[in-house]
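lol forgot to send this yesterday, sorry. C-alpha cells for the thing we talked abt
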C-alpha cells in the first residue's frame, strides 16, 4: 500500500475513534510530516484522500478540520440522502407549488425531505440552522432566506454550513454577504422594468408602486421599476413609492388597504409587489366605489382568477423553479459543480 494511503487510513481510524473530537482539528502538515517521517507532498495526498471521502475540510489560513458525521456518510457512499427544505411559508400563496416541484423531483430520486418554515423570522431561521449544525443528519439544504433585504445575524451560520461543504441552494434571492452562494430565482429586475413598459403601453403616465422592503425580491423589483421609468424617458419623481415589511402585515392585515386611497389618489398606473398586494388595491378601490387604476403585479397566482381586466400579473414559474432547484441539489449531492440560474417571467 502506498505510504499516503497508509497515513490516510491511520488518520481515518483516529477520526472515527473520536481522537480529534474535542478540538475538531487535525495536526498541522509539519506535525504529520514529523510523525510519519514522510514528505509534505505525501501528507497532502493523504489529506486530499480524506477530504474527497468527506472526513476532512480545510479553512484557508486556519487549518484542516474533521467534518461532521453527515458529511462523512454522504461522501463515503451513503445510498440515500436527506435534504432540508427551509421556506418562509409552506401553505400560503405560491409556496405550495414551489414545494411540490422540489418534493416531486427529490422523492422520485429516493431523497428524503424535511420541510420547515421560518415565518420570515430571523430567530426561527437561527434555531433551524443551529439544529442542523448541532445534529448533522442533513445532506443538503434548499432555503428561502429570511429577510434577505436586511442585514442578517445568521450569516455566520450559513458560512459554517458552507465550510462543511453541505450543498446549499437559495430560492429566489441569497444574502449579499454570501457572494459565492448558489441561487435559483426569477429575473426580478427584468420584471420591474417590464412593469413600466407594460403600463406605459396602456397610456399610463403617473405611476405608483408598493414594494416589500425586507426581502431582496422587493428591492430588485424596485430597481427594475426605476430603470423602466428612466428607459421610458420618465422622471423618477413621476412615481409615488411606498414600502411595507413582514411585521407591518403581522400587526395589521389591512395595513396595505388603510392608506391606499390617499397615497395613490392621482396615479393612473400602479405596480404591486405581488398579487396579494394587488388584491388589497382592488378591494380598497371597490369599497370606496372609485375607478381602479391600471395595476401591474407579480406571480400570476390563483388570486388572478378573481382579478378584473385592469390588472396585469406576470407569471412566476413556481413548480418549475422548485424542480430546477431540486435538480441542482441532486447534482451537488453527486459532487457536481452547479451555478446560479434566474428564470424568465411568463408574460
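and heres what i got for the seq, position by position
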Amino acid at each position: 500500500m502506498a505510504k499516503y494511503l497508509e497515513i490516510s487510513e491511520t488518520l481515518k481510524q483516529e477520526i472515527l475513534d473520536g481522537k480529534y473530537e474535542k478540538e475538531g482539528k487535525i495536526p498541522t502538515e509539519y506535525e504529520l510530516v514529523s510523525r510519519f517521517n514522510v514528505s509534505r507532498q505525501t501528507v497532502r495526498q493523504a489529506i486530499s484522500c480524506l477530504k474527497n471521502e468527506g472526513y476532512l475540510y480545510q479553512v484557508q489560513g486556519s487549518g484542516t478540520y474533521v467534518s461532521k458525521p453527515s458529511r462523512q456518510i454522504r461522501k463515503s457512499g451513503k445510498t440515500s440522502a436527506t435534504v432540508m427544505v427551509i421556506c418562509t411559508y409552506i401553505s400560503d400563496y405560491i409556496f405550495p407549488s414551489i414545494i411540490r416541484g422540489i418534493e416531486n423531483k427529490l422523492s422520485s430520486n429516493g431523497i428524503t425531505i424535511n420541510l420547515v418554515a421560518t415565518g420570515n423570522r430571523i430567530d426561527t431561521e437561527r434555531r433551524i440552522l443551529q439544529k442542523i449544525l448541532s445534529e448533522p443528519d442533513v445532506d443538503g439544504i434548499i432555503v428561502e432566506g429570511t429577510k434577505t433585504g436586511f442585514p442578517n445575524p445568521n450569516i455566520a451560520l450559513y458560512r459554517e454550513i458552507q465550510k462543511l461543504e453541505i450543498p446549499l441552494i437559495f430560492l429566489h434571492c441569497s444574502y449579499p454577504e454570501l457572494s459565492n452562494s448558489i441561487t435559483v430565482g426569477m429575473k426580478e429586475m427584468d420584471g420591474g422594468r417590464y412593469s413600466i413598459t407594460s403600463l406605459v403601453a396602456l397610456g399610463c403616465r403617473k405611476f405608483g408602486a408598493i414594494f416589500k422592503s425586507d426581502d431582496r425580491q422587493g428591492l430588485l423589483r424596485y430597481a427594475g421599476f426605476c430603470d423602466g421609468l428612466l428607459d421610458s424617458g420618465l422622471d423618477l419623481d413621476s412615481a409615488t413609492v411606498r414600502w411595507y415589511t413582514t411585521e407591518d402585515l403581522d400587526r395589521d392585515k389591512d395595513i396595505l388597504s388603510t392608506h391606499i386611497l390617499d397615497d395613490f389618489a392621482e396615479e393612473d398606473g400602479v405596480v404591486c409587489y405581488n398579487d396579494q398586494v394587488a388584491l388589497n388595491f382592488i378591494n380598497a378601490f371597490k369599497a370606496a366605489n372609485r375607478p381602479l387604476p391600471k395595476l401591474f403585479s407579480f406571480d400570476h397566482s390563483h388570486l388572478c382568477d378573481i382579478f378584473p381586466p385592469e390588472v396585469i400579473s406576470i407569471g412566476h414559474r413556481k413548480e418549475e423553479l422548485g424542480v430546477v432547484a431540486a435538480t441542482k441539489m441532486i447534482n451537488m449531492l453527486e459532487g457536481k459543480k452547479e451555478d446560479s440560474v434566474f428564470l424568465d417571467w411568463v408574460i
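The two ends are 62 Å apart (CA to CA). anyway ping me if u want another try
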